[in-house]
């Protein structure tokens, strides 16, 4: 494909989103859905952030590789991301693991997910490919990363977070020289290398990689023939390029999209119950660390047609109210008090109930006199009248999943088991 000299690089690129993982650390929240399909922020799903970043960056060719319990994710893609038009040279392909290579081969690793779809990527006619994880929350302009990739002549450009050095033990860490070239890639090192000139910080991999497609294509074919490879970008391909080629680190701070309200670059892996709860609750802050109200960089999603939120009853002790909270459409707060909480679409809270630091996923019903604190309520859960959660650690742990932090996850199966036991 011959590009115009002044064309944005994003018009010559495609985004390949790896969205096949379960995210087992989210426990029961991923029993029926893949981690990228988990709800976040009131009306979006986690995968919407990577896809919105690509769309807002000018990328109009995308592919999403799915594997684990992909139905809700695929349904969300069809409903919320079906606006791409082939006649405008726009494409969004959903690529489930479908035994295209062999009848006994699902996606064996992150690199293999791309390898098994080489012919489909070829059909896009793109020059660059951006490999993205579909399970992180952040806002980033990929065009800036593409420019660095091209200007540096890198074989791979790796998106990196600047993190306190000792916290980097939980990440894949880049050891770089003064020019930003990666000299070593270390997986969860006990003693992470610091950034040159900044001994207190290290560069941690975001799982975002930019390649020239022709280079990556050849690398994937060679990797597929290597029986000793786990066919994974982080374990196999990236270390190989660091050793034998040119890998360049791209700092997230250089391409992070911020409104005037966000003080520092925002990136979250909401891969645990604690992290998921905290990131959602953070949105209720007076000035949240992530600005979802930035119309210059919208987070696109499936926009359901629902009525506005409604607050009813205005009596002492029975007042429908929400303070320092996000309340989505089709919610009815009826005579209950909601504070520092996030209610997703279609929730109902009934009289005399209290919700404090609660993340309630769509269609949750909270019945009368329930008292909920520091908890995550899964989609469609019906909270019985008078149920108390978040106040008695021993009682919480008896019936629900209680984290060491005190955050409690409540699902309908847990409530059904409790009801069966109590009779």
Query: What name does CATH use for the topology of the largest domain?
Result: Spore Coat Polysaccharide Biosynthesis Protein SpsA, Chain A
Q: Helix amount, in percent?
A: 10-25%
Structure summary, number of beta strands: 29
- Number of structural units classed as domains: 2
Q: Report mean pLDDT, rounded to a whole number.
A: 94
Identify the CATH architecture of the largest domain.
Alpha-Beta Complex
| Overall spatial form | globular
CATH superfamily membership of the largest domain = Spore Coat Polysaccharide Biosynthesis Protein SpsA, Chain A
Describe the structure concisely.
With 423 residues, the protein is α/β, with parallel strands linked by helices. It has 10 helices and 29 strands. The chain has 2 domains: 9-284, Spore Coat Polysaccharide Biosynthesis Protein SpsA, Chain A, CATH 3.90.550; 310-422, UDP N-Acetylglucosamine Acyltransferase, domain 1 (3 Solenoid).
Structural descriptors:
alpha/beta; Spore Coat Polysaccharide Biosynthesis Protein SpsA, Chain A; UDP N-Acetylglucosamine Acyltransferase, domain 1; nine-stranded mixed beta sheet; 10 helices; 29 strands; 23% helix; globular; ATP binding; ADP_Glu_pyroP_CS
Explained architecture:
- Pathway: Glycan biosynthesis; glycogen biosynthesis.
- By secondary structure, the protein is α/β, with parallel strands linked by helices.
- It has 2 domains: 9-284, Spore Coat Polysaccharide Biosynthesis Protein SpsA, Chain A (Alpha-Beta Complex); 310-422, UDP N-Acetylglucosamine Acyltransferase, domain 1.
- Helix content is 23%, strand content 27%.
- The strands form 6 sheets. Strands 1, 4, 5, 6, 8, 9, 10, 11 and 12 form a 9-stranded mixed β-sheet that branches.
- β2 and β3 (44-45) form a beta hairpin.
- The longest helix is centred in the middle third of the chain and has 12 residues, at 213-224.
- It starts with 12 loop residues before the first strand and ends with a helix.
- The mean pLDDT is 94.
């Amino acid at each position: 494909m011959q590009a115009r000299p002044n064309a944005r690089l994003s018009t010559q690129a495609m985004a390949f989103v790896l969205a096949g993982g379960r995210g087992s650390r989210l426990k029961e929240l991923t029993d029926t859905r893949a981690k990228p399909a988990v709800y976040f922020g009131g009306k979006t799903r986690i995968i919407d952030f990577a896809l919105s970043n690509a769309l807002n960056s000018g990328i109009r060719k995308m592919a999403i590789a799915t594997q684990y319990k992909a139905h809700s994710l695929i349904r969300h893609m069809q409903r919320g991301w079906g606006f791409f038009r082939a006649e405008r040279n726009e494409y969004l392909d959903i690529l489930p693991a479908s035994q295209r290579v062999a009848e006994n081969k699902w996606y064996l690793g992150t690199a293999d997910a791309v390898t098994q779809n080489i012919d489909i990527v070829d059909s896009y006619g793109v020059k660059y490919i951006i490999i993205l994880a579909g399970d992180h929350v952040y806002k980033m302009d990929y065009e800036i990363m593409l420019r660095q990739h091209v200007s540096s002549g890198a074989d791979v450009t790796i998106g990196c977070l600047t993190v306190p050095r000792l916290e980097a033990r939980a990440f894949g860490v880049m050891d770089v020289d003064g020019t930003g070239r990666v000299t070593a890639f270390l997986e969860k090192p006990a003693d992470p290398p610091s950034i040159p000139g900044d001994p207190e910080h290290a560069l941690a991999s975001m799982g975002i990689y930019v390649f020239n497609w022709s280079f990556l294509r050849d690398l994937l074919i060679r990797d597929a023939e290597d029986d000793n490879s786990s066919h994974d970008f982080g374990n196999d391909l990236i270390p190989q390029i660091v050793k034998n080629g040119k890998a360049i680190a791209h700092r997230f701070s250089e391409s992070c999209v911020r409104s005037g309200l966000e003080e520092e670059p925002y990136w979250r892996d909401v891969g645990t119950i604690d992290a998921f709860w905290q990131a959602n609750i953070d949105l209720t802050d007076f000035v949240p660390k992530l600005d979802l109200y930035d119309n210059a960089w919208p987070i696109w999603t499936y926009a359901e047609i629902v009525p506005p939120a409604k607050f009813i009853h205005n009596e002492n002790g029975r007042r429908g109210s929400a303070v320092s909270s996000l309340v989505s459409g089709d919610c009815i707060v009826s005579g209950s008090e909601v504070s520092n909480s996030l209610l997703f679409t279609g929730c109902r809270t009934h009289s005399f109930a209290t919700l404090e630091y609660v993340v309630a996923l769509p269609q949750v019903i909270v019945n009368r006199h329930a008292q909920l604190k520091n908890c995550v309520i899964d989609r469609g859960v019906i909270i019985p009248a008078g149920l108390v959660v978040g106040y008695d650690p021993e009682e919480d742990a008896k019936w629900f999943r209680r984290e060491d932090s005190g955050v409690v996850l409540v699902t309908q199966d847990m409530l059904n088991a409790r009801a069966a036991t109590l009779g």
